[in-house]
Task: inverse folding
């Protein structure tokens, strides 16, 4: 019987099966409404249940109530930025909230920006404009999908 746990493309390269975000609760935080809509649409198309917030303070309230499976957060927001939010999240006493897997979104694509995001408490860094496949792969990565 053939093992379908991996796929081969037309060139014969072995690739991992597509990841599904079906049923995952994801909080998307971005001050830009168009970005929130775009990211939400991408993730909902993959089966995720999306809640949005337009600020860090709103996101913290939602996080405590929703306790999502993943946080996807813009870095550059007025008032409290994404770095401040993730530091506040990591300090929360509710373990499921404090340890929520998190993906930073930013237009800053330099390696130092990636380091800043990871040092602040994010597990992944995705640059804007967001490529849907990159975002889904980053979410899968922070959740440990596909790891043995």
Result:
């Amino acid at each position: 019987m053939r093992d379908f746990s991996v796929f081969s493309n037309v060139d014969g390269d072995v690739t991992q099966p597509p990841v599904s975000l079906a049923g995952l609760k994801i909080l998307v935080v971005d001050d830009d409404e168009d970005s929130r809509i775009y990211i939400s649409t991408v993730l909902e198309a993959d089966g995720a249940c999306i809640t949005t917030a337009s600020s860090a303070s709103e996101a913290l309230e939602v996080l405590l109530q929703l306790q999502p499976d993943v946080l996807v957060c813009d870095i550059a927001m007025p008032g409290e930025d994404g770095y401040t939010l993730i530091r506040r999240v990591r300090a929360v006493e509710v373990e499921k909230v404090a340890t929520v897997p998190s993906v930073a979104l930013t237009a800053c694509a330099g390696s130092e920006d990636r380091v800043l995001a990871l040092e602040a408490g994010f597990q992944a860094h995705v640059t804007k404009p967001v490529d849907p496949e990159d975002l889904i792969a980053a979410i899968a990565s922070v959740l440990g999908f596909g790891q043995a």
